[in-house]
Amino acid sequence: MSEKRSSFTGKIGFVLAAAGSAVGLGNIWRFPYLAAKYGGGIFLLVYIILAITFGFSLMCAEIAIGRKTGQSAITAFKSLDKRFSFVGWLCAVIPAIILPYYSVIGGWVMKYFAVFITGGIGNASNDAYFGEFIGKTWEPIGWFFLFFGLTALTVMLGVQKGVESVSKVMMPVLVVLTLFVATYSVFMPNAMEGVKYYLIPNFKDFSVMTVLAAMGQLFYSMSLAMGIMITYGSYMKKEISIEKSVRQISIFDTGIAFLAGIMVILPVFSVSGNTDVNAGPGLMFQTLPKVFASMTGGGIIGTVFFLLVLFAAFTSSISLMETVVSIIADKTNWNRKKICLIVFLFCLLMGIPSSLGFSAWSFISVAGMSILDMFDFASNSVLMPLTALVTCIFVGYYLKPKTVIEEIELSGKFTAKKMFVIIIKYVAPVCIVLILISSVLNGLSSLPIFEKFKI
Ligand code: PHE
User: Fold this and answer.
1) Residue of the nearest CA to atom 10 in ligand 1?
2) Could you tell me the CA-to-CA distances from 345 to 116, 139, 449 in Å, in that order?
3) Which of 15, 49, 219, 372 is the Cys-Cys partner for 354 at CB 3.0 to 4.6 Å?
4) For residue 257, which atom of ligand 1 is closest to its CA?
5) How far, in Å, are 164, 168, 212 from residue 161 at the CA level?
6) pLDDT in tens, 225-268
7) Which domains does the chain have, with CATH numbers?
8) Are the beta carbons of 8 and 237 closer than 8 angstroms?
9) Which among 23, 7, 46, 80 is positioned nearest to 212, based on CA atoms?
10) Alpha carbons 153 and 341: distance in angstroms, whole number
11) Degrees, nearest 5: CA angle 41-42-44
12) Hey, is 201 helix, strand or coil?
C-alpha cells in the first residue's frame, strides 16, 4: 500500500464510471418488465421516490465509506470496526459470484450484436435460435471468453486509463443510442397504446409487492450492497461533492431505465398488440429479435440496440472486476497485472459451468434453477439484501451516521442530512428484511415444499 492510490480524474470521470456500473442489463431487461407487471406509471412513481430517498442514502453511505477509508470493502470495514470485517468479505464475495455469469450473458449480447450487424436478423428472429445457440457447448464459451477478456484488459489498464476512459466514451454514446431507439419506438404504429400502458398509473395493480419489487430492482440497478460503490468512492477526490454526484448517478440510472421501457415495451406493443413483456433472456434474445424482424428498419434498430446493451453490460462488468481486483490489491500488495490475471483465470473457470448449464451440464438443477440462475439467486436474492442490511445497521448504530455525514460535508453542505439518518437507521433496515424474505420465497417458489403455500 505504499503506492499512491489511483483516483478518477474528476467529477465527470467518477460519475460516468459509477453510472456505467449502475446502468446495465438490469435497466434494460428487468425494469421494463417490472414496470409493466406492477402497474405501469405507479411503479415508475414508486421507483423514482425510492431512488431519491432510499437508493440515494445507501449510495451516499457506501461512497463515503470508500472515500473516508481510501480502501475497498474488506479493508475499509476492517479499518472502521474490526467486528464488521465480515461485511467486507460479503462485499468481496458478491461481485466474485456475479462477474463470471454476468460475463457469460455479456458474451450472448456480443454474439447477438455480431449476428445483427452481419445481417443475420432473419435467423435471430427464429424462435428456436436462442435455445440452439446457448445449447451449444463451445460457441457461448468462446463469446464469454471474448467479452470477459476485453473486460480484463480494460481493468488491467487501470482506473484512469481503463475504467474511466472507457466509461467516458461508452456512457455518452449509450445515451445517444438509447435516445435514438426510444425515439424510433415512439413513432411506431400503436405506440401511444403502449405509452398509456407503460405510463398511466393503474392503481388497481398497486400493492405492497409494487414497493418491494421496486426496491429490489433499485438495489441491483444502482449496484449497491456489493462493494462497488465503496471501491469507486475510494478513488474519489475529497473536493468532489458526494451528494451531487449521487444525484447525477441516480438520474442517469433511472433515466436509462425509463427509456428502456419506451424502447422495449412500445415496439412489443406495436408489433404484437399485447402486453406480453417477459423478463430476462427471453425478452432480450427472443421477443425483441422477433419484434425487430417485423418492423421497418429492424436490422439497423436491432444492431444499435445490441450495441447499446453491450456497452451497458461492459461498463457494469468492468466495475465488478475492478471491485474484485481492488479488494485483492488492498489486501496483498501484488501488482495489478498479476491480480488481473488471477481474477481472470478464476472467473473463467467459474463462468464455464454457468455457460455449460444450458448445454452439456443442463441436467444440473437445484430448485428448478440452472447453474447461472443459482448464482444469480445466491447473490441477488440472498447475499445482497443481507449485505445491505448489515451495512445499514453498521452505519446507523455502530459507525454512526455522523461519520458519514462529516465525510460528505468535506465537500459542501449535505442538504439531505435528516432524511439520510432516518432512512439508514429506521426505514432501510425494515424494508430490506422484507425484500430478503420476499425474494427468497420467490426464488424458492418452485420447490415442492413451497408449492402448497402458493397463492
Ligand atoms: N447495476 C447493474 C444493472 O442494472 C447490474 C450490476 C450488478 C452491475 C452487479 C454490476 C454489478 O444491470
Assistant:
1) 316
2) 30, 19, 38
3) 372
4) 4
5) 6, 10, 39
6) 999 999 999 999 999 999 999 999 999 999 999 999 999 888 88
7) 11-453 (1.20.1740)
8) yes
9) 46
10) 9
11) 65
12) strand
- Provide DSSP, 19-30: HHHHSSHIIIII
Residue written as grid cell 428487468: 30
CA angle 233, 234, 240 (to 5 degrees): 55
Ligand 1 pocket, residue 320 CB under 6 Å: yes
Selection from 314, 358, 291, 306 nearest residue 115 by Cα? 306
Q: Is the Cβ atom of 223 under 6 angstroms away from ligand 1? A: yes
Q: How far is CA 12 from CA 2, 17, 185, 189, 194, in A?
A: 27, 8, 30, 39, 35
Cα separation, 362 vs 350, in Å, equals: 16
98 Cβ inside 6 Å of ligand 1:
yes
> Cα(351) to centroid of ligand 1, in Å?
17
C-alpha cell at 373: 440462475
Q: How confident is the model at residue 194 (pLDDT cuts 50, 70, 90)?
A: confident
The model's pTM: 0.93
